[in-house]
Amino acid sequence: MSDEAARDWSASGLAALTGTPDGPPDVSRAAVLSRARAVASVLSGQLGIVVDAAELLAGRAALSGLHRQGRISAGGATRLIAGRDGWFALTLARPDDVAAVPALLESEVPVEHVWPAIIEWAGRRQVAAVAERARLLGLPAGVLGETSAAAPVVRPHASRNAFQDYGRLLVADLSSMWAGPLCGQLLARAGATVIKVESPSRPDGTRQGERRFFDWMNAGKLCYATDFGQPEELRQLLAVADVVIESSRPDALVHRGLGPEDVPARDGRVWLRVTGHGTEAAHAHWVGFGDDAAVSGGLVGSDPAGSGPVFCGDAIADPLTGLHAALAVAESLRCGGGEVIEIALAAVAAEYAALPLTAGDCVARAAEPTAPALASRAGELGADNERVRDFVRERASGAC
């Protein structure tokens, strides 16, 4: 079975994304794809669509031409770094992250020397202390293996309501990047009307990256732009939505009166919160992206030379979480909804990290990831505002 899983991992393109850049591809995490395929099969039955796990896990890399880089993430924004007592991952994906590095190191450093300076500084410190300081500055960080596997947290929120079909479902997708938008994309493919909600001042960051990736995640959604600082219009949309998807810090929407307890109740509504590390205590304020969250969950590959961990796949905690989030929403809807679901990237990664390692020999060559077919482009920012307002008025009046 391990040989078959290794061949599947290699053929999917995931082996080409795992391992050192100058060494053989790593197949030790082949069980991840086997498990993801099993989840995708269940989700396919729930949604009535074909869900290809390998495509979801390797599709961004194929669209962007990414390859394995060992302790540099495939996307390039995250590094695996050794401290005195272990390994941690740090992500510098945003301009604000880079700007925070002098505060992290307590010294000025030229932009071109940021990573060497961090590596030298961290090597003299314990990883827990490094991560604590990074998180105080709002930097995405993950200590290798610090997070345990955990199922999504589900709690009652409203009365249940008989679910009929996805064609009648209205989804407000306030999330950004990958995990949340993937959940919304899968619901859209099942027939739901999905509204991508963005702030004009802070749109989804993937609009500025590889456009085909943004299209892959968001084509088929209505594009709605609204000022989160003037929340009344957005509150009206959330009040009539059957599903809300958000990936903000847990208190970000609550401070604007847009949390699940602030919006008028709707029977059967499912409110999905995607976070990096959960919503409890200090973890609620930890920023997490797919690569550093995967490291936090322990989901890494191995260097054949035995010199330490390498990144597994491309931001793999993101598509895995999007897959599991869609399944959690589908199962909740099938049972009548009325729930808040909280799912954390690091906890999902930890579930996959606990799978047995594949003992097969590393393959000498691996297939490149195959790019997903793109049938259409996503809309421009705010392109469907009037149509969305019509939806809200119709639903508020009870017309649908």
Automatic annotation (TrEMBL):
<dbReference type="Pfam" id="PF02515">
    <property type="entry name" value="CoA_transf_3"/>
</dbReference>
<feature type="region of interest" description="Disordered">
    <location>
        <begin position="1"/>
        <end position="25"/>
    </location>
</feature>
<protein>
    <submittedName>
        <fullName>CoA transferase</fullName>
    </submittedName>
</protein>
<keyword id="KW-0808">Transferase</keyword>
<dbReference type="InterPro" id="IPR003673">
    <property type="entry name" value="CoA-Trfase_fam_III"/>
</dbReference>
<dbReference type="InterPro" id="IPR050509">
    <property type="entry name" value="CoA-transferase_III"/>
</dbReference>
<dbReference type="InterPro" id="IPR023606">
    <property type="entry name" value="CoA-Trfase_III_dom_1_sf"/>
</dbReference>
<dbReference type="GO" id="GO:0016740">
    <property type="term" value="F:transferase activity"/>
</dbReference>
